[in-house]
Amino acid sequence: xxxxxxxxxxxxxxxxxxxxxxxxxxxxxxxxxxxxxxxxxxxxxxxxxxxxxxxxxxxxxxxxxxxxxxxxxxxxxxxxxxxxxxxxxxxxxxxxxxxxxxxxxxxxxxxxxxxxxxxxxxxxxxxxxxxxxxxxxxxxxxxxxxxxxxxxxxxxxxxxxxxxxxxxxxxxxxxxxxxxxxxxxxxxxxxxxxxxxxxxxxxxxxxxxxxxxxxxxxxxxxxxxxxxxxxxxxxxxxxxxxxxxxxxxxxxxxxxxxxxxxxxxxxxxxxxxxxxxxxxxxxxxxxxxxxxxxxxxxxxxxxxxxxxxxxxxxxxxxxxxxxxxxxxxxxxxxxxxxxxxxxxxxxxxxxxx
Length: 353
What we know:
By secondary structure, this protein is an alpha/beta fold. It is built from 14 helices and 16 strands. The protein has a 6-stranded parallel sheet, sandwiched between helices. Strands 6-8-9-10 form a 4-stranded parallel sheet, sandwiched between helices. Helix 8 links the parallel strand 12 and strand 13. The protein is globular. The protein starts with a strand and ends with a helix.
């Protein structure tokens, strides 16, 4: 994987794949994760972790983005007959390996290096804008590295379509799992809406606030981020901010809410499945990974424009609709850990054959 710094989506994917393939080595650009969190991934199994000199940057390693290709050269897998699985949102699909009877499966958990593709305006701003001179080089590097894996899988049809266009390769979609045992079903919904996530610009919480300022309905927002204070100041009294909550607390809100609302565009978005496991419908912007996880008018409402008016129309349509909470949960159960493992193994077997 690209790096170890926080226990998030990529790390959970590695955890579930480790349960199947029993990795004995992990190659990363940098490892700044505490040992107790590494245990959450690998348990008590001893795993050798190889990192690069990028670790010298500590938690500020992302500022070295233009140097990632140089650090990647320090990761070389020399074993023969190796099965290599890279879980990546950045560069490690390009890891060097002994091609003598080895196979490399790369699993794209997001659009790789998207900060030099469509989302460059989000990342290269302020003083960082000086780094934009490296964008053409990093794009060429990304495409070149995409030729190295034996096969490429991705988390969603959205990412697969993107990767096919950028890399001109066959891409197989395998949706990542949600831990369905972590969430309780509840058919007794209460009169409030909910949204959970990081309060950052690309999540478009500004649209959510504007819509609920106008409709006056009760909204609970769980999460923290750089926009917390500005959103608080903008919000009317019908909107309640809970800040960061540990899972055992926010899950209770997920199962009781009348609907979960999402305004951003994610490469997949496990957050859209967690409420559905509880039987809670989802109102989501119709782009990105939401199209893999939300069935329009069956498990939620998809709206087509990332605007306040389109969101308000979707909320109005939701309130005129009737949803079967058991159907919603049944749909979400299809994204279980066991199903993910099974589909991944089947596709790896096809590559090895």
